Amino acid sequence: MADINVDISLLPEEVRRKLAELNLELSEGDITQKGFDKKRSKLLAPFNVQQPPQDTGPSAPSPQTAAQRKAHRRLTREDNRYHSDSSSDDDSIFGEDVSRDFNRGGRFRDSGASSSSFSDAGASPHHQGGRGERPHSAAYAIPGNTSRQALADVLQSSRHCPRHQGKVSAKIQQLLNTLKRPKRKPLKDYFVEEDDALEAPQPDPNAPKPEGSTLTPVPGEQLVVPSGLPRNLEAALQRYGSSTYKANAVTVLDQNGKPSINLTYGKLLSRTHKIAYTMLHKVGQKGEGGIKPGDRVALVYPNNDPISFSCGFYGCLLAGVVPVPVEVPSSRRDAGGQGIGFLLGSLNVQWALTSEACHKGMGKSSNGDVANFKGWPKLSWFITDHLSKPPKDWHPPPKQSEDCPAYVEYTQSKEGSTVGVKVTRSAMLCHCQTLTVASNYTEGEVMVCVLDFKRDVGLWHGILCSVFNGMHVIFIPYSLMKIDPASWMKMITKYKASVGIVKSRDMHWGLLAQKDHKDVNFSSLRLLLVADGANPWSLTSCDAFLNAFQSKGLKSEAICPYASSSEALTVSIRRPGKTSASKTGRGILSMQGLSHGVVRVDSENSLTSLTLQDCGQVMPGAVMVVIKIDGPPVLCKTDEVGELCVCSGYAGTGYWGLQGITSNTFQVQPLHGDGRSAGDKMYVRTGLLGFLGPGGLVFVCGSKEGLMSVSGRRHNTDDIIATVLAVEPMKFIYRGRIAVFSIPVLKDERIVIIAEQRPDCTEEESFQWMSRVLQAVDSIHQVGVYCLALVPPNYLPKTPLGGIHLHETKKKFLDGSLHPANVLMCPHTCVTNLPKPREHRPDVTPSAVHVGNIVQGARMAWAQGRELSISDEDSDSARKHQFLTEILRWRSQTTPDHNLYTLLNSKVQAQLTMTCSQLHKRAERIGSMLMEKGKLNTGDHVALIYHPGIELVAAFYGCLYVGCVPVTIRPPHPQNISTTLPTVKMIVDVSKASAILTSSIVLKLLRLKESTGIVETKAWPTILDTDDLPKKKLAAIYRAPTPEMICYLDFSVSTTGMLAGVKMSHAAATALCRSIKLQCEFYPSRDVALCLDPYCGLGFGLWCLTSIYSGHHSILIAPSEVETNPAVWHTAVSNYKVRDTFCSYGVMELCTRGLGTSTATLKARGVNLSCVRTCCVIAEERPRIHLTTSFTKLFANLGLSPRAVSTSFGCRVNLGMCLQGASCPDPTTVYVDLRALRNDRVTLVEKGSPHSLCVMESGKLLPGVKVVIANPDTKGQCADSHLGEIWVHSPHNATGYYTIYGDESLHADHFDSHLATGDARLSYARTGFLGFVRRTELTQSDGERHDAIFVVGALDETVMLRGMRYHPIDIENTVSRSHRKICECAVFTWTNLLVVVVELEGNENEALDLVPLVTNVVLEDHYLIVGVVVVVDPGIIPINSRGEKQRMHLRDGFLADQLDPIYVAYNM
Question: pTM for this structure?
């Protein structure tokens, strides 16, 4: 079929229509491939014309190929149903540019599974696309929609000849109309996706724009090298070392400031030869690897020993070895040492050259070798002092090629990593020649150098140029400058030096040393190089210095600002004598303009102006351009600020071993705005930001390293520092000790300022100064400061020369290890890109939502436990045993000796056991005591105040036996009577207890002097001690007239501090027991271990009720015993081979912490937990997944099955809703989107997704329990994609609240609520907890798919901020992860401010580290601004008996100023 070649667009209309129908039949599967080929060839045969093969286009698909593709699509059609439908939002499959694309052809991979391929019309010569190309429409095809694919083919052929609109079949026309119809937008969820709202700030439309023409490359003057200069550095050393061997090359001042240490050129030459010879021939003879030419060696010399360094450096050059000058490693706080170690490792450095004195001072290991420094490779050390002479016939090895590296200079990238810049031999020579010409150096001149001689300007001038020109350099050690800041000025005067190399810092210090000014004479000085002259604020130092010393002979043209870069080396120098005075430029520029990247002149007196001085012109032989800071290297306009780039013969050639970033920095080819190349020269980025003024003057207004881009505007750290210094700095902070940097928070950069404060500065003065700084930065730069911190003196990490190590400071700040003394955070003013607050729609009625859910096909959120039927239990016995008292009496008669309870002590010994008959008799005696001693009537309330044990159970049934209503109350804690006793008294009062039953131990507690001071003895009702019982039996056991009468009161304090007591009827109590029995399969033969508090909720039910009802043996372990012996619970479970065990989170935490390292010991003792089928945590909160997972992993090697550990859920209105049963499906875990959850939506996401929260199912619903999820405000039933309040209907719901006033009107609907939509007939109780229901893939025992219920949190506890609902635990979990020293955290709101209280497990000086970290992390994860951060000692956050935080008590304590905080930070 390949030989049929027909231009389909030229065919008659009828034939084209038949072809289209044939294509459709094939794509729909109505015809076989063979039939298609046959019919098609028959149709085309009369029109077949043989054409030259080149006209067809070599890669156009043949008809057969197209047909095969369609067949492939047909095969994969069913698969496509399951492919992503992400592109189906487009209104039509064709864009406006389709016909254009058809002729041009877009290149896409041919994947029949997701898009349409060409029809046979694609073979037409009108389409020039190659094989596998396809039009843009392909990108929009809906997967699985083969009709749509066929339609694309038909439309394609019809688009080629618009004149003939062929008759399209009705089926295709209908499909076309459907596709043209715009898609209906999905129903709104009434909240904005926060990530879309949280966009990076958009640029200001009114911002000034550059208006100049595009900059052309600016060349410097031609480099004319004077004829007398040496041909290279080795030749210079040879020349001056032999001809002027007595002339001084280097002089170093000693600690007394005396120039006593000298090195002549002769000595320099001879020592250099010794080092080169020894390095190449003698090193490595002890079995270590030797040094060969081309190897890299480290030069490790202290900053007060330039002589040894010079000898070592030139020794390496002579030997052809590549020196890498680095700082002396120390174990002190010098920052950046690890980065240098990493660099040496990547350079494969194995040897280090050093001096004898330096070697002695280094830390040594036990065998006398130099200790390994952190992050450094293992080095062999070569001492360059006292070496023997080389043989007379020895000559240095022949020189390597000029493009070999001469030396490697270390520098730091913006991210803080240490990199090595390669400088070749030719570049080193060219640099020396260029600097010699630019600085007009001559032989014999005297230079005074204050800078670090190992790198940058100090190395280039003080070590390289000085020897190249035979000059005499006097080095001033940094340690001396601290003692005598005027020493460099004295040396210029003494030696009549013509050149000085300093930084603006040295000029500033020199100005302050006024007593030394009288002897200074600068008349000999022709060149004072200011190495950091590119820094905008060096100008003030230069001007002040000139004003002070012009009278001492200092010429204004002698001050020469210098711009340098580690990568491009010298960028520019202002050159005296070369430039007329009129050409030195000063610009008064608008900071507002600079922040938008444009150059705008400002008035001189303006507060918001920046005065810049030029750094001279483009260097001789070099060319400069300015390129845009971000994106491709596009040339800037003439009035635009960009990155300066240099093309010169002396620039560095790359970062050692880092090819990727080398090409981006060292091989930059500038482009025009339209993408064309602007010449073939390669430039090197300098990292300096600025512009080129008239006459090739170079202006620098910042550095890329110090660039902070805040809300689309650029600010430079140096400008901010200048502003900070302007605010009376001398009183409060140290001038040179300020660090400014930006940190990314919430998709924007935020400015952080850190300064060292003076020791005598009070906190109040500090805050006054800080607030003035904030105002100054805001008014001058129009930008807010996010964080301003003051640290004690000498706290900031230092570089070896005493400057601030910025990267290390930033790292410490973000790690929380900077230890500031004062912190001021201003997130409210800085963070302006928060999403808009959510708006609630009160006009949306529950019925409208219900209809919306139906339209969307959403499943309504409800779930129910197993049906309770008569067949579950014998109906007669069910009627007979409606009362627990009757069941106990029946058991005491039928199985009197059956063991019901065993109480264990901390040594896992049975402290007390009780059989059915013993319990019955004891209960009778307690009942008799109540009647006789207590004189109580039926219906009276009795408070039971007991420690966890069997006596509590006996007292409970004793009350029921005489018709009294028991109220269980936790006894006061002996160590904390002052706070626990009032709670006991309050419950006694609120419950209207007529008497108290207790033990002698608790009675003693109540009568302690401390207790009577809080509650007088007379204030209690009648107290009866059950340790002293009468022997009398009861005449008859009371039976309530109806099962709906109150059985007992269940009191509990919620986490919001509300005391809530509920009434449990006899029917509800037995129904609860029945549900638990069925769920957990409890029988008299079972052993069940309980390790929890038995005072309320499901814990009380398991401790006091279920054993009586089901007859199983309960092994009781008081949680206090676990505090004494964390292994008691595990050992008991193992000894008794317990299948079902129940505990509280508190017990689980005690075990996890207490036995973390003891599992092997327990295993050796024979503890085995493989018998456990259910280990259930009894709780009234969201499952604590982190704790249960830790517990499971920790005890897995004791045989604990991961599926055994589960949680339960109960609340005030229903004490037991969910409990993991023996035959229930495994607990389900899902991940939900936290951002959706804030908006009451449930969106499931994958594990590890950003903003995901892991939620575990709270056990399985008990038999007879039905739950629905309802909107707490409208009472409408929610869909399962919504978060709502959990409502419950069950036979064991509590019958109502019991309050002191008896007025239950406020809470009436809590126990009898009806849905506004859905099943409105059924009565539900409102739990007050938010949650959702999800249908899972698991199958229940009844064969139905399992609906899992997930509890998210208590409605009372949620915090409404910015229109969204936050659960405190989520914010607290985020905060706890922000710093390892935070041991606990709690949040609450106070006047619409979010207050975060953190417990610090560390020193008090670490408290302020937490403030920025807590603020950052809450902003990033929750889009909330923290108003107050309170740092307290461990144990301050109150926690109730269930291990839940009492946030409202904490709030009250905070407002009453009772927390005794370490620090309170009020974020402005």
Answer: 0.79
